[in-house]
Structure formats: structure tokens, C-alpha cells
TrEMBL record:
Membrane protein topology class: Multi-pass membrane protein
Record key words, sorted: Cell membrane, Membrane, Transmembrane, Transmembrane helix, Transport
Short name of one Pfam family: FUSC
InterPro entries, A to Z: PHBA_efflux_AaeB/fusaric-R
Localization, UniProt: Cell membrane
Bilayer-spanning residue ranges: 117-135, 142-158, 164-180, 218-235
GO cellular component labels: plasma membrane
Protein name listed in UniProt: FUSC family protein
UniProt region (Disordered), positions on chain: 64-86
GO molecular function terms listed in the Swiss-Prot or TrEMBL record: transmembrane transporter activity
Superkingdom of this protein's organism: Bacteria
Length: 430
């Protein structure tokens, strides 16, 4: 009993000095430095005991993690099969590109553009699988074209039309454009446009006319590409990102249920690979978040996505990582008997809450925040009863610290889930 209570006092003192929230970058990087040392420590502690492993958690847009025992990891993983939804999306994208190229080619012939094929090239370059990604590529392409055409036009205007001066000017222009593109990545195609202007201009065509034609052709291709993505069976970047976040929540639910089973049975559980796969999934979803925000900024979508949603997901993922480290070695039998069922019930309720949040992200539904309260109340009562029992005196200082850490992390994860539900409501309202 004294060992258990002294550990609780020490832990509470340490937790009191921890910041309530961490920054976005810190939230992503913090658990990585702790994974290796804790996993080695718990592996030494849990040798010779049954361990359940969570594997195959590399997320696909429509697939979730699977759980299996470590004895079934001997064979190589089977390659993921292409789903019907992915095939449907590929067919829709091919249809968009074909229609956009047809329209662009017809307009270039109708307008009698000198080099109308550049408009078709632009369609092929800018068209992506979502409206926001296509719009972003089109804007970047247009900005780079204007900058490159202006730079190349100035070089042509100032350089004698002879091979050696043109070669020297070309090297200088390409060097300037490459330097600028390193500072501003959206201008990475400026050097290509400048080189095209310098190398393909005919002496019979004035420089300013040639530059204006290039800008008009690129603009035509970019506008048609965006309109095709917007009109022909559109896929919104916001929908894609929310689906990725919802898939991550589904994986969180599966990991929590596996951890709950281990806590209830008193078995060691390893979720390191699952948490790494979950981290990679969140990083990939955040990369697409920029497209959704740009889509909203260009008035192509009514609703945006708040940065608070991925921040909440990162905090939940970090809490799950810590819980999985605590469960990599089994708790003593008396702790499992007193608190195992209640802790498992809390994790299962949080798993159900994660799935409810995922459904709300996909279908704009409501999330019932009261479903977490009953299980948390049962764990709190069991924890207080265990503190006052004789069984608490038999566990050591280290096990007491692990037990208190589990209780504290489950409470913090509950708060982070509630915070996520609030952010989802705010996003739907806005």
C-alpha cells in the first residue's frame, strides 16, 4: 500500500507540470523518441509470455488494419488487392481527362492557336483526382508560366538571334529560374516555359505576341482542367481528406479493441507496428489537407476543414501509443482481476466512439458524447476501490507507476476524443 500510494503522489506531481496541449509538430514527433526505449524495456520484462501482435496496418483509402497473433507472421504479407472503389475512381478520372483533352483540342483549333498543343499538355499536367488538387496545380502552372514567359521574353528581346548568345542567355535564364524555384516551389515550371520561349520562337513572330500566346494556351488548358474536375463526376478534396481521417479512426478502433482484449485477459500486447502504420496514414492525410484548404480558398467548396481535427487525431494516436507500451508486459494477476474488465470496457467504449466519429466525418452525422461516461465511471470506482484494498500493497513501485499511467492516459484519451467530437461539430456547422 505505501508503495502504491507514494507512486501515485509522485506521478501526480510530475503530471501537474506537464503542458495540457502540445504543438502540432511536437505532437507528431514526441512518441517516436519513446517507442524504442520503452519497447526494449517491456520486451525484457515480458519474455516467455504470450504476446498478441497487431500487424498489417498500412492504410489504404478503403482498407483497415487487421489483427493476428505473432505466430502467424512467418509468411510474407499478401499484396493488397485493388478494390472496386479504386477501379471506379480510376475510370472516372480517365473519363474526365479524355473529355477535357477533347474540348481543349477543339477550342485550340477553333481559336486557331499557333501552338494549341500546349493547352492539351497543360490539361494532362494539371488534372488530378480531386477538385482541390487540380485547382492547385492549375494555379501553380499559370503562375510559373507567366513568370517563365516573362523571363524568357526579356532574354529573347535583349539577346542577338545567334547560337552562342542564345546559348549563354539560356544558361543564365535556366540558372535564375532554378534558384527561384528552390525558394518558391510553385515556380518549378518557370524555367521550362522560359526555355520553350527562347528555343521555339520564330523570328517572324514578335516576342510579345509569342509570350501572350503561350500564356493564353496554358490558361486555356488550366481552366478547362479545373472545370472538368468540377463538373464531370467531381471528387472534392474535402471528401477525400475526411474519408482518410475516418479510415484512421477505424484503425484506432481496431487497435483499441485488441488492447482491451489484452488488458482484460492479462496478456502482453504489441501494437508498435500498428501505431507506426497509423502515423504514416495521418501524415498522408495531412498532405492532402492542403488541397482541401485551397479548394475552399478558391471558392470551389463551401466548407473547409479545420486544422484542429488532425491535431486531435495526433493526440489520440500519441495516447494510444503510450497505452500500447504499458500493455507490452502483462500486469500482475491481482491488478487484472480488479481493474482488467473495467479498463477493457473503457477502451471498447472509446473504440466505439472512434467509429462514431468516423461515421460523422463521412456522413456529417452527430456524435453522442455521453457514451463514454458510463465506462469511465466504472473504471474510476474500481480504481478507488483497488487503492483501498489489500491487493494494492502486494504490487511493487514499478507496477504501481504503470497502473497509474494507464489510468491517467485513458482519462486523457477520453478528453481528446471529446475534443475531436467538438471539432467535428464545429467543422460541420461552419
Amino acid at each position: 500500500m505505501p508503495g502504491f500510494l507514494s507512486c501515485c503522489v509522485l506521478k501526480r506531481c510530475r503530471v501537474a507540470h506537464l503542458p495540457r496541449r502540445t504543438s502540432f509538430a511536437t505532437a507528431k514527433m514526441l512518441p517516436l523518441s519513446q517507442e524504442c526505449c520503452r519497447s526494449r524495456r517491456h520486451r525484457r520484462r515480458g519474455r516467455g509470455k504470450t504476446r498478441t501482435a497487431i500487424v498489417n496496418t498500412h492504410l489504404q483509402p478503403e482498407s483497415c488494419a487487421m489483427t493476428e497473433t505473432s505466430s502467424r507472421q512467418s509468411g510474407p504479407p499478401t499484396p493488397p488487392k485493388t478494390s472496386s472503389i479504386q477501379t471506379k475512381r480510376a475510370a472516372i478520372q480517365a473519363l474526365r481527362v479524355m473529355i477535357a483533352c477533347t474540348v481543349t483540342y477543339g477550342l485550340s483549333q477553333l481559336l486557331n492557336l499557333q501552338q494549341g498543343y500546349w493547352a492539351v499538355f497543360t490539361v494532362l499536367i494539371v488534372m488530378q483526382n480531386s477538385v482541390g488538387a487540380t485547382a492547385g496545380m492549375a494555379v501553380d502552372r499559370l503562375v510559373a508560366t507567366v513568370a517563365g514567359a516573362a523571363l524568357g521574353g526579356i532574354a529573347v528581346f535583349l539577346t542577338p538571334h545567334q547560337p552562342l548568345p542564345i546559348g549563354i542567355a539560356l544558361i543564365c535564364v535556366v540558372g535564375i529560374a532554378s534558384f527561384v524555384s528552390m525558394r518558391a516551389p510553385r515556380l518549378r515550371n518557370a524555367g521550362l516555359t522560359a526555355a520553350i520561349v527562347m528555343l521555339t520562337r520564330s523570328q517572324a513572330v514578335p516576342v510579345e505576341v509569342f509570350v501572350i500566346d503561350r500564356i493564353a494556351e496554358i490558361t486555356l488548358g488550366g481552366v478547362i482542367g479545373v472545370l472538368a474536375s468540377l463538373v464531370i463526376l467531381p471528387t472534392r478534396s474535402r471528401t477525400v481528406v475526411l474519408d482518410r481521417f475516418a479510415s484512421a479512426l477505424d484503425v484506432m478502433a481496431q487497435i483499441l479493441r485488441t488492447l482491451a482484449a489484452g488488458a482484460e485477459k492479462g496478456e502482453a500486447v504489441s501494437a508498435t507496428e500498428a501505431n507506426i502504420g497509423l502515423r504514416q496514414s495521418l501524415v498522408a492525410a495531412e498532405a492532402l489537407l492542403t488541397d482541401a484548404q485551397r479548394e475552399h480558398a478558391l471558392w470551389l467548396a463551401r466548407q473547409g476543414i479545420s486544422d484542429a481535427i488532425p491535431r486531435s487525431l495526433w493526440r489520440i494516436r500519441n495516447d494510444m501509443t503510450y497505452v500500447s507500451h504499458l500493455l507490452e508486459a502483462p500486469f500482475p494477476a491481482e491488478v487484472v482481476a480488479a481493474l482488467g474488465p473495467q479498463a477493457a470496457r473503457v477502451m471498447r467504449s472509446q473504440a466505439g466512439f472512434a467509429e462514431a466519429c468516423g461515421k460523422a466525418l463521412r456522413n456529417a452525422g452527430e456524435v453522442d458524447s455521453q457514451r463514454l461516461s458510463e465506462a469511465d465511471g466504472a473504471l474510476e470506482a474500481a480504481f478507488e476501490a483497488f487503492q483501498n484494498s489489500k491487493a494494492a500493497q502486494s504490487i511493487g513501485f514499478r507496477e504501481s507507476g504503470r497502473l497509474f499511467g494507464l489510468d491517467f492516459t485513458l482519462r486523457r484519451m477520453r478528453q481528446n476524443f471529446l475534443d475531436l467530437a467538438d471539432r467535428i461539430r464545429e467543422s460541420q456547422f461552419n
